[in-house]
Specification:
With 265 residues, this protein is an alpha+beta fold. It is elongated. The chain has an 8-stranded mixed beta sheet. A 5-stranded antiparallel beta sheet has the order 1-2-3-4-5, covered by helices on one side.
């Protein structure tokens, strides 16, 4: 790709923005790269873009070039506390589509109150790394189809990494699973990040809701982290997800940030 957009620069030289591939744009001023833009298609089909530039004027030039080259709608994700970035995207015509709260979640069961949680009758928890891959992938597909038929997968956590087509469970070892009557009915995914593990997803089949399975999965995951010496974990919750908000706030999780998903239609 070689579409070129030349605009006034930040000093005495013009900023030249060039589309160097289907998904990348480079901004060059006086033979120096002063910014870049990227585009990626998420598993749900939405097109997300990002821009890295030191100067607001360069950001605007790259944004103009990408918007001229790409079809709408376009999406991006920003830290709500980063007012400069939020303002820059708003200048480009983006508006807030949804907010996702970031929670710092204690792992000590005496703090969370999960020490008294009992696994529902007939349900067993299969620890992370021990689940059978085939049934796990089948459960993931059932849950994704249920979410898509209800609120839509776009309502799930904003930070969804691009994956090969059709692949939804990248690393089965991160999943602990709830099993009932020889069926997998729910799971929790924990990414064991060094600084602070991340609870990526807790999900239970629709026909098994309101039975305490999600709470049992959370108690298992946090208890395992606590026993390994981890004091807290991180989780993101869509602000419109009242059930998940109540679940985390009910165990003493505290809001520690927020992410905005922005859209330009």
């Amino acid at each position: 790709m070689n579409s070129v957009h030349s605009t006034p620069g930040t000093g005495n030289h013009a900023v030249v923005v060039t589309r160097v591939s289907d998904t990348q744009w480079h901004a060059v001023e006086d033979d120096r790269m002063v910014g870049c833009g990227d585009a990626s298609r998420r598993p749900d089909g939405r097109l997300f873009i990002s821009i890295d530039a030191w100067h607001g004027a360069v950001f605007d030039r790259i944004a103009d070039a990408m918007l001229a080259d790409l079809p709408t709608p376009l999406y991006t994700v920003v830290d709500e506390a980063d007012h400069d970035s939020t303002s820059a995207w708003e200048r480009a015509g983006f508006t807030t589509a949804r907010r996702e709260w970031g929670y710092r979640v204690p792992t000590d069961p005496q703090v969370t109150g999960l020490d008294s949680v009992r696994t529902p009758s007939g349900v067993t928890i299969v620890p992370a790394g021990e689940a059978e891959e085939g049934p796990l992938r089948a459960l993931d597909r059932v849950i994704r189809d249920e979410v898509e038929a209800a609120v839509g997968w776009q309502a799930m956590p904003a930070e969804v990494l691009p994956r090969p087509a059709g692949t939804t469970v990248v690393d089965p070892s991160k999943y602990a699973v709830a099993r009932q009557s020889d069926q997998y009915v729910g799971f929790v995914r924990v990414a064991p990040l060094t600084r602070q593990p991340r609870i990526g997803l807790i999900a239970v089949r629709a026909d098994r809701h309101r039975r305490g399975i999600a709470r049992a999965l959370l108690a298992h995951a946090l208890g395992s982290l606590h026993r390994s010496g981890t004091a807290s974990a991180w989780a993101e919750v869509n602000e419109s997800n009242a059930a998940a908000t109540a679940l985390f706030e009910g165990i003493g999780a505290r809001r520690a940030g927020s992410t905005l998903e922005l859209v330009r239609r």
